[in-house]
Amino acid sequence: MSGSNRIPTGPRIPVKRADDTGLDDVLAEIGALVGMESIKMQLNELIALGRVIAIRRDRDLPLHRFSQHLVFTGPPGTGKTVVARKIGKLFKAIGLLRKGHCIEVDRSKLVGRHIGEAGQLVQEAVKDALDGVLFIDEAYSLAGGSGPLATGDMYGNEAIQTLLKLMEDYRDRLVVIVAGYTGPMRRFLENNVGLKSRFSREFEFKSYSHEELFEIFQIIAHDAKYILEPGALREVEKYIRTMDRSRDDFGNARDVRSLFERIVPAQAMRLGELANLDQLSNEELLTITADDVRAASLP
Questions:
Q1: What are 53-79's pLDDT values in tens digits?
Q2: Could you tell me the residue ranges of all domains in the chain?
């Protein structure tokens, strides 16, 4: 694979123009994601394989059996859903999917309360996802939970069996990505031979470093058009370094977004106390101060 069709593994590395329509844009989007160097390297392998398969298919050349379905493992807030959306666009760009959209579901959208209902719900989800990606978050919950997986969940089992059949029926028109915590996901696949045989690749998403979380915060603020004073940036970085990353419910990028969403109303409260609010400049209305961050950081 030529260098122009390789995802940059470092942040903000420009991508040269690719020959494939739309491929360069997708590569740039993925390359701009914070961190994820190992994920980007695995995606480069998928691009190479997918392009060869698409060309062989177009030329009616023999094709070996290729499973496009993927397993995403790792803690919450590490970009699994974001990358699933990018993969849909990526597979469309290299000719493996016609639409490349991503339908996102979890157990609540696949398992009903009556026998037969789960099968219908899975069929509807697959129909919506055809020619794109079906992303199933916390997929291990289909087997009854995240601990020692239950075997008596007949509704979840119905959903799994229906999904297996449809993955086979539409293997050229559907990519299924199952995601969740690493341990429960591996047990989930090990306990079902049919599932394990259909997922050939696991992408393991790691927790972000403090530096990467700080970079993500700055991207979130920049995308929202806010301006952070130097003191505000220092307060944000200090807060991120004090986050308890050992918590079971630590949300990585989700916790960083939550911090930003607390800072915005804190800034509004500060501005609301000013007598001449209508006379503030656009820059003043968009500026976040150290006091705003400290107010949002209080327990």
A1: 878 878 888 776 667 899 999 999 999
A2: 3-204, 210-297
- Asked if 293 and 299 count as a contact pair (C-beta separation under 8 A), the reply is no
11 vs 173, which has greater pLDDT? 173
Contacts of 154 (CB under 8 A, 6+ apart): 115
Q: What are the pLDDT digits (tens) for 187-217?
A: 888 888 888 888 878 999 999 999 999 999 9
DSSP symbols for 167-214: HHHTTTTEEEEEEE-HHHHHHHHHT-HHHHHH--EEEEPPPPPHHHHH
Q: What is 210-297's CATH number?
A: 1.10.8.60
- φ/ψ of 258, rounded to 5, equals -60, -40
Residue of 30, 24, 33, 21 lying closest to 5 (CA atoms): 24
- Looking at CATH, the fold of the domain delimited by 3-204 is given as Rossmann fold (3.40.50)
145 C-beta neighbours (distance < 10 Å), count? 16
Model confidence over 115-156: pLDDT tens digits?
Answer: 778 899 999 999 999 999 999 999 999 886 544 444 557 888
